[in-house]
């Protein structure tokens, strides 16, 4: 029984550590695209290519890269990479400029 608890706890802590980068969150809760305002609005909805460029700039400043997985309506789902390792999965709202971690 002790082994099962140890394994479960170890998996829980390793999953939590996987979504963090260098001891701090990769995508702070409620962060926003620098191309939009800090209040969660864009003057016009960003095109998919503008949104991809904005994400690349945002994460490049943190020394990371982004791979867009899905473009659905106003949302973009992307993986955040440190080298070849996925360290976060995010949803970007092209209308509000909000970036949310879903990892």
Helix-strand layout with pairing:
Elements: H1 2-18, E1 20-21, E2 24-25, E3 31-32, H2 48-60, E4 65-72, E5 75-82, E6 85-93, E7 98-101
Antiparallel strand pairs: 1-2, 3-7, 4-5, 5-6, 6-7
Explain what this protein looks like in three dimensions.
With 103 residues, the protein is of the alpha+beta class. The strands form two sheets. It has a five-stranded antiparallel beta sheet with strand order 3-7-6-5-4, covered by helices on one side. A hairpin with a 2-residue loop joins strand 5 and strand 6. 22% of the residues are buried.
Label this structure with key terms.
103 residues, alpha+beta, 7 strands, 34% strand, globular
| Structural class assignment | alpha+beta
How much helix is in the residues? 25-40%
Mean pLDDT: 78
Strand percentage lies at 25-35%
Number of E-type strands: 7
One letter per element, helices H and strands E, the order comes to HEEEHEEEE
Reading side by side through the largest sheet, how are the strands ordered? Answer: 3-7-6-5-4
What's the Cα radius of gyration? 16 Å
């Amino acid at each position: 029984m002790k082994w099962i608890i140890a394994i479960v706890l170890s998996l829980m802590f390793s999953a939590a550590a996987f979504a963090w980068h260098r001891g701090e969150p990769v995508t702070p809760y409620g962060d926003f695209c620098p191309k939009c305002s800090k209040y969660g609005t864009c003057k016009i909805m960003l095109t998919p290519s503008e949104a991809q460029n904005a994400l690349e700039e945002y994460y490049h400043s943190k020394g990371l890269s982004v791979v867009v997985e899905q473009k659905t309506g106003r949302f973009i789902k992307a993986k955040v990479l440190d080298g070849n390792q996925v360290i976060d999965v995010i949803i970007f709202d092209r209308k509000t400029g909000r970036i949310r971690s879903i990892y």
